[in-house]
Amino acid sequence: MSENKERIKCLIIGSGPAGYTAAIYAARADLHPVIYQGLQPGGQLTITTEVENYPGYPEGIQGPQMMEDFRKQAERFGTDIRWGLVTAVDLSQRPFKVTVDESNEVFAESLIIATGASARWLGLESEKKFNGFGVSACATCDGFFYRGMNVAVVGGGDTACEEAHYLSKLAKKVYLIHRRDELRASKAMQHRVMKTPNIEIIWDSVPLEVVGDKTVTGAILKNVKTGQESKLDIEGFFVAIGHKPNSDLFKGQLEMDETGYLITKPDSTQTNIPGVFAAGDIQDHVFRQAVTAAGSGCMAAIEAERYLSSLED
Ligand code: NDP
Q1: Residue from 10, 80, 141, 298 carrying the catalytic annotation
Q2: What are 157-205's pLDDT values in tens digits?
Q3: Domains of the chain, each with CATH number or no CATH
């Protein structure tokens, strides 16, 4: 390692709930953490509106404000929060070489990966326009706002079915829009959806456009078999066509499942490389909640601290 390169005790990649919580714990343990915020500082919560299920905010809070609070708390204990996108890592030896913005190389004695996952979107302009105003990719986060209304969920996998079922308890009617004539979801999930009276499956259909004024009032659908177009009157439009973990950077170096989620040891955030920990949505395809991400960020910092101390023994 070149003498004049910066050496960081605990480097955290990603600035969502997992990354910031790891930073709060690491800073308080004197690990002098450095965070590289990535492309979307604050993570997925910065693209949601109100968060009402994070404990400690009895009146709810706007997602961007909550992440601002996380950032301030991490800073208060001395976290060095930096702009920058990690573009390469070399985990073959310690300290780990981390390249930021293609050119700046730093070296990390321990690494916490909290790069999260991104919801897959359909790619419609109107979907972007109404994001947070009727369009959402998270029923658990936003379902509450659609009490007694008509909503649609797009997708045919377990997530779509789970979201449709969750929404069926709040909304008046849930349309599940799927592009084929059979669901991809597990049989158990399919049964659950089929036997819920206020869920209607719209088969062989894809949304062409989300329509509305300030908020969503409908969606234009196309039947892929007949080519026929129709308008569905809805107030909420949930996209559930899968998530993509942001793990491309680690391919070939860290163990991941077929979808790209990093694999950690049971009850731990430890990856297959000692000193490298993974927290939050990058390693969790099941819960994907801010509070669970924060919990695993805390675990990662405690494990990094124990790992670094064990090297000194
Ligand atoms: P999946 O990849 O399983 O399903 C995605 C769905 O979206 C598919 O039905 C797919 O259609 C559809 N889709 C993809 N792209 C488009 C598009 N551009 N336009 C329209 N539709 C599209 O993702 P999930 O998030 O549902 O699940 C991911 C993993 O997590 C799975 O292994 C799942 O089993 C697991 N999971 C398990 C849960 C549980 O056990 N409780 C809950 C949630 C997820 P098509 O079928 O035609 O490809």
Answers
A1: 141
A2: 988 999 999 999 999 999 999 999 999 999 999 999 999 999 999 999 9
A3: 5-118+243-312 (3.50.50.60), 121-239 (3.50.50.60)
